[in-house]
Design brief:
alpha/beta
């Protein structure tokens, strides 16, 4: 009798847990995640097949790769704070006629208004990187909306940029809910398919190192992530652009991306 009661109790618990999972699938199965990918080697496509979040990224139309049948590249920069190198980056982009997008935080907008205006005046996009750079999986949906709206309002007021439609989640941390709420607010989340550890200002290894790290990962449809706090990136950017073009690549703005792909 006791065994039967225990068995029934176990079945009841299992049924309750199944109901909870069914009612709250996001909490149970869909995050948080920290964006990562298998790097491109020898021109082969990178992969997010084994990261556990590919379906979520696809469901919300987030960007990982562009058209992988064409030798197109998309240059993106994260701007959390200014370290003295963004003017050089902008100089190179202007000289080489390369469009880019800069994802800015509230701190950056307040601290560097002239650089933000220069980005827009020189034809680049300015994207949202949140107001305070929080882990957005740990704040409410309303707080997410507030984080995004404050950046959008300030950039629009400062530059006249009428639309802000791209978001890069702070630290690459996201969940199904973060992507859903931001998409509902008019944003396309932008991840990346080329990156290296460039953000540590205490571990800069020279322009040659930056050049090799980026060029080794180039592939069709690549979304390149660089941080403007990196001295190495500022020094290597011109050579990276020249080498990519030598290999037959063309740089495009995210607004020109017509096809999103997610690897094999």
């Amino acid at each position: 009798m006791r065994k039967t009661s225990a068995w029934i109790h176990t079945l009841w618990i299992a049924a309750v847990l199944s109901l909870l999972v069914a009612q709250h699938p996001a909490e149970a199965q869909q995050g948080p995640f920290h964006f990562g990918f298998k790097k491109s080697v020898g021109g082969q496509l990178p992969s997010i097949n084994e990261e556990g979040f590919k379906d979520i990224v696809m469901k919300h139309g987030a960007i990982f790769l562009g058209d992988t049948t064409k030798k197109e590249l998309y240059m993106t920069f994260d701007n959390g704070y200014e370290n003295g190198y963004t003017p050089k980056v902008l100089d190179v982009l202007k000289e080489k006629q390369v469009p880019a997008i800069f994802f800015v935080t509230g701190h950056y907008v307040k601290d560097q208004p002239e650089l933000v205006k220069r980005m827009v005046n020189e034809g680049h996009l300015v994207g949202n990187h949140s107001w305070t750079h929080p882990d957005m999986t740990q704040i409410s949906s309303n707080q997410i909306r507030t984080e995004l709206e404050k950046v959008r309002e300030q950039v629009q007021s400062l530059t006249g940029q009428q639309a802000m439609t791209y978001l890069r989640p702070p630290r690459g941390i996201f969940s199904d809910n973060v992507l859903a709420v931001s998409k509902d607010s008019g944003y396309t989340n932008v991840f990346w398919s080329v990156a290296y550890k460039d953000w540590d200002v205490n571990q800069q290894k020279g322009a040659g190192f930056a050049f090799n790290q980026v060029v080794a990962q180039l592939h069709p449809g690549a979304v390149i992530l660089l941080h403007t706090v990196s001295k190495d990136n500022a020094a290597a950017l011109g050579s990276i652009i020249d080498e990519a073009r030598k290999q037959g690549y063309e740089f495009k703005s995210l607004d020109q991306m017509t096809v999103k792909t997610y690897g094999n």
